[in-house]
User: Fold these one by one.
Assistant:
Number 1:
Amino acid sequence: MKNDKNHVVVGIGEILWDMLPEGRKLGGAPANFAYHVSQLGFCSRIVSAVGYDMPGDDILNILRAKSLDTDFIERIDKPTGTVEISIDGKGIPEYSIKDNVAWDNIPFTDKLARLAAKTKAVAFGSLAQRHHVSAKTINAFLDAIPEENEALKIFDINLRQDFYDRNTVERSLHKCNILKLNDEETDIISRMIGISGTIEQVVDTIRKRYSIGILILTCGTKGSYVFGHDTMSFLPTPKVKTADTVGAGDSFTAAFTASILQGKSIEEAHKAAVDVSAFVCTQYGAMPALPDTLRNIF
């Protein structure tokens, strides 16, 4: 399946400039995901939009320089997205996301429908569904993936600012078969959908209510869990010298997805995801090059 253009892994949603204290870096969770999947040897595609402006030109040029396909990044008569990011004393990012930008207006096209027919895994989040155009496109793309593909549909929830609501979250929970969220998001979702209990009880209720096969719960420095039908994997977070954590979660999702597509167990996929995301934490920005020692485990 690796490097097979008939078995594509897709990141659909935002692509933007992360305006970090040390300068701008290319980012956006679905784009980060697709980038890291490509580093791990899979045919990946980014579905998004940029503006008819210099920041949009720069994004496309950088992606091409990284040997990433840009055929599914539309040019839109809106500004290219940016996010102002400040990093606190623990290396944790805080975001200020510009509204009504190009990636809010991703069109659904015949070309996208053809891509859906070849999709074996797709990662999407809540942020790019904040406006109706991109929300409609994301959901149309998910629905266009043939059932016989048995595709992984990963809802990496990524709650940001106030750009989410219950309808969007619940619709996405019904459409995914893998859910990834952090401990803070778990608390928000629990209150939103009216469930309570221990972490294990909350996770079990979410998985059963929305028929989710795998639930990934990350808890920062306290470790991460992966819950499957008959499996629970816990791994501590490695102690590394953190540059920033921007994009670390997206690299985790990418490595986990790549591992599952290769037939690895949940435990093996979890270990690969932790190792890759720990390395990304030691680098600045969301799209560092992975060393051969990590690429080779795939």
Number 2:
Amino acid sequence: MNQTEATASTLFDRTLAGLKGAVRGLIGGDILDPDPDLKKGDAERIRERLWACLEGTGGEVSARNRAADLGKAYLQLSQTGRRRYLTILATEFDRDPAAVEQAAAALAAAPPEDRAAAEDALRDALSAPRERLLRQFNTLADGVKFLVDLRYDLMRFAREDVALSGLEKDLKRLLASWFDVGFLELRRIDWNAPASLLEKLIDYEAVHAIQSWQDLKNRLDSDRRCYAFFHPSMPDEPLIFVEVALEAGLADSVHALLDEESPVGDPSRADTAVFYSISNAQRGLAGIAFGDFLIKRVVDDLRAELPNLKTFATLSPIPGFSRWLENNPDEAVETALAKPGWWEDPETAEAAKGPVLRAVARYLVHARRRGRAADPVAHFHLSNGARMERLNWLANVSEAGRAQSAGVMINYLYRSDMIEANHEAYKGEGRIAMSSAVRALAGKRENKTR
């Protein structure tokens, strides 16, 4: 089991414990204890319990009992069993096409005085029974976390089974409404936070792995900041978090930022806030956007605390470059990077610098996917109104940094007077804001890139 799988297993165990707690003390019915692969007899019991949830017999307490038991049963299943469970929910509790068609026809034929009622009838027909079942989990302790993790399972299973995609979309819509940014709380996390929360930062860090408790302590020191969004229904679970270094000028090396031996800086003397890691902590919330709001909120918080800060920028990875290079080979780059340990030899590294930086700039500026920047990190920051400011050579020569982008990282600059114009230009026309240095490296687009 790799680290990601171990983390996911631990988090499911926590949610399972919460749902077991929800079952305790609730009355009515036998407790489900299915075979892990959900064999035929157990599948029928799940199906019956789901229908009982919809019918609502026995009152609110019984409904909570059944929902908690169904959730606990799901978390006890193997991947095979979970897929069978979700297939039942997706296919047997879907919308009734005939009812939808009939309601649509009734609305089209309705006289003005009956139109409101006909619209309500169509709205009801379009609401799948499975949506009501999903909402029942929302009422449980740890129920929202359960649904977030459930969606991650659906996202994986739906890649192979289109029958599950409708259920995944229904759940995404529900989560998007529950996780509206207006409901989220921004918190600063420091070394005095509960140990359980600090452990989750270590588990969830997705950009620069946290190697030790001392590494984490360094990232939370007085010249560093860490902020996260939380939801009221998941108060102990960060949704997304950002790590910030308070520096004098733009940072050009992540190794310097993460160096545990470097002296602690004085925040009152810093003029630049460098966002060097942004991690989505809940994989089941993928595609539900609140990362852009996080940056804006953190900038406001930092400005209020440290009015000496004048520049807000990132030191960002370029995760898609190597994959793009495979499809757009560059002989000069391949030759420059062919020598083992090229980054450790000053002469070889200097020879590689020009070809690699030009190739990275071409990728960032010209490679597009559906009209947007192909690189996901670039798309995120450009959508938020940043501009491509500077490429940094040998900024991350860790194994991961070399594998992603030959050690190159980029600064995205957030200028308050240009954010709105940059955002509109990118969203409306696909136009990328960039410095003259980046433009010179990228050159003109010669051919179509993917």
Number 3:
Amino acid sequence: MTDISAQDQAPEAVEKTRNQWWDVWDQFRSHKGAMAGLIFLTFITLFCAFGPMVWDVDPGKLDIRNKDVRPIYVAIWDGDAKTSWARPMGTDHLGRDIMSNIMQGGRISLAVGWTAMILAILIGTFVGVLSGYFKRLDWGLMRFTDLVLSLPILPLLLVMMLLFRDPLRAAFGPETGIFLLIVAGIGITSWMQTARIVRGDVMALKEREFVLAARSIGTPPRRMITRHILPNVLSPIMVSATLGLATAIITESALSFLGLGFPSDFPTWGKILFDSVDRMTAFPERVLWPGLAISLTVLAVNYIGDGLRDALDPRIRGL
């Protein structure tokens, strides 16, 4: 009888010890848009990261003899177009391979997006936790957050680019200096929403019973924040991170499109789009590729954020 009852209770014990992250994953998988976004984001990341190992064409190589080569599918409606199977996406007016430039530009755009997002999340979480937990710091930090929110972001970024571009390029080189400047500019102008969200959650959490119990036994504030507060605000931070990644990619593309990003021989999706605008009428496919890369990547990240929001909400998870 003892063995039978133990066997009957075993599935219940396994169900009780099931990790909650498996429930989050199950809820996330049920969101079709989030799964499609995750698949596309994984694909575009692998395409840009490992694609140059397979397609080893130098993105900066000039081949004047093969300039303005159009993709094969263009021959369907334009029989006179110069096409080549060796250039699946064609070449630009200088003979540079467009597909290799899309790969290289994607690596830069995604690197800027991820790095700027991490910087913004770190700043926003730091400010939000301090403001929500320490009442004496709340007024000053939130008024500073309101001040930064009131600033026009794009003009501010343009001013930062004009003021600090040349000193950073001289100190770190043209590519590294601009990378640091763009990441810092996007990061320090994108943390405010995260700070407000984290502050609200921290203010609610610090009145919960387990926090009051930990405070009653003399837990210091630093340990209270790292052990009890931060683990319970990971959900909104993760959702803010996905939305911040999309914002960072769009902002970097806008700066590159305006000609204030990386050097002209250093491709990004925004720079490729800018170079293609002048010949958009004659070669519309050149605008299509970087535009699709930016739009679909941002759309995929937004869908992932929606899926994470639903999966991490305990009121929705399990329905």
